[in-house]
Design a protein that fits this description.
The protein has 347 residues and is of the alpha/beta class. The protein has 11 helices and 14 strands. The chain has helices at residues 13-22, 28-39, 53-62, 134-152, 171-182, 202-210, 226-232, 235-238, 241-255, 273-283, 308-320, and strands at residues 6-7, 63-64, 69-75, 81-86, 92-99, 104-107, 111-112, 130-131, 158-161, 194-198, 216-220, 259-264, 288-293, 325-328. The strands form 3 sheets. A 10-stranded mixed sheet has the order 3-4-5-6-9-10-11-12-13-14, covered by helices on one side. The structure holds S-adenosyl-L-homocysteine.
């Protein structure tokens, strides 16, 4: 039987160095290969031109470089690009490039599908198939950076983990990917330009704080009333708002980084003054700001975006209480690339 070749990017730099020593070569070859694999993001041993032909053949015999492929690319009339990304085992995830006047943001996926059942999100309709590996997350960033340079004439400026999946349920791989994205041996991006968005898993938020991460945290709140939140996000039944708050206070005390609450206002669900008041009460207990995001309808039409007046009422209530609030306009809606619309469907 043919030996199953190992994915070379699953090796640490130290393991690569060891591999060369064990094969009678110098350890620095490991550094050279590591640089090709990450900093230069090459997908072929043949590109590694500072290695001899024999070394390249030897690598080829022992390893593969699993990599993603942009299977399909759709461009919205607002400049947003949605990519269907094919993984080495043919599963598909989506990544989005979101341009503004001054910057481009990559919205990346962390899992194939999602195990959480938020009832307003299209990705929740897909079964969780598997976690993405660090290189699969890294490659999405590289691909979007290339598109940013090609279509928008500047490099990628920000990354948000707001694509498919729950990043805190793929903790190790997400943190490993971010390490490589921010390291000078990788893409050298500042962690200040990276935001991880979570449904809010208290234990893992505390772990992030303990691990002293330097990136930003966003939490999908959507309601500060347990009964309402549990209805929209079943995770709230396992860990309620009080537990979440306690974890967020722990995060802030350790990192001193302000938390962003993502919040959608739905008609007849959380569009009343009492909902806004509850949000104010919640925000006052931890250093935070609010992003009000537009609801992007998913096919079943069960939920609707609240009236403009409801957004205005929230803004007024939050501002009266000196809580920073931004109203976020949706991008890429025409190609189903907006928040909560990622569901591997092509139009
Ligand atoms: N699992 C993570 C990241 C993925 S979702 C999280 O829950 O934060 C990214 C954001 O899109 C979340 O705030 C999510 O609540 C929001 N979202 C999901 N479906 C949406 C929809 N149909 N319209 C608008 N926002 C949606």
């Amino acid at each position: 039987m043919l030996k199953q070749k190992q994915d070379i990017r699953a090796l640490t730099k130290e393991q690569l160095r060891m591999f060369f020593i064990e094969n009678g070569d110098k350890s620095f070859r490991g550094n050279q290969v590591y640089e090709w694999l990450w900093h230069k993001a090459t997908h072929s041993f043949d590109d590694m031109t500072n290695l001899s032909k024999e070394t390249r053949t030897m690598l080829e015999e022992n390893f593969v470089i699993n990599h993603i492929e942009v299977d399909q690319m759709q461009r919205s009339n607002d400049g947003t690009i949605k990519n269907a990304i094919k993984l080495h085992d043919s599963l598909i995830v989506e990544s989005v490039l979101i341009p503004t006047e001054t910057r481009t943001t990559a919205c990346v996926s962390s899992q194939v599908g999602c195990s959480l059942d938020c009832n307003f999100c299209a990705t929740a309709r897909l079964k969780r198939m598997r976690n993405l590996n660090p290189d699969e997350i890294y490659d999405q960033v590289v691909a979007i950076d290339q598109q940013s340079r090609l279509y928008h004439n500047h490099k990628l400026s920000n990354i948000v983990f707001m694509g498919m999946g729950e990043p805190l349920l793929n903790y190790k791989n997400v943190l490993d990917a971010i390490d490589k994205i921010t390291s000078d041996e990788g893409l050298g991006m500042s962690p200040k330009r990276i935001t991880l968005s979570t449904v809010g898993i208290p234990k893992m938020i505390k772990k992030l704080a303990d691990d002293e991460v330097k990136f930003n945290l966003a939490v999908s709140l959507h309601s500060a009333i347990d009964e309402v939140r549990s209805k929209m996000m079943p995770i709230n039944e396992k860990s309620n708002l009080a537990e979440l708050l306690e974890a967020l206070q722990y995060w802030y005390n350790k990192t001193k980084k302000i938390i962003t609450f993502e919040y959608v206002i739905w008609k007849g669900i959380n569009d009343k003054q009492k909902d806004a008041n509850a949000l104010v009460m919640y925000c006052k207990q931890v250093s935070s700001k609010v992003n009000l995001i537009e609801y992007n309808a998913i096919d079943d039409g069960e939920f609707q975006q609240a009236a403009k007046e409801a957004t205005a009422m929230y803004v007024k209530t939050l501002e009266a209480n000196r809580i920073v609030v931004n109203v976020r306009r949706s991008r890429g809606k025409d190609i189903d690339a907006a928040c909560g619309q990622l569901a591997n469907k092509t139009s």
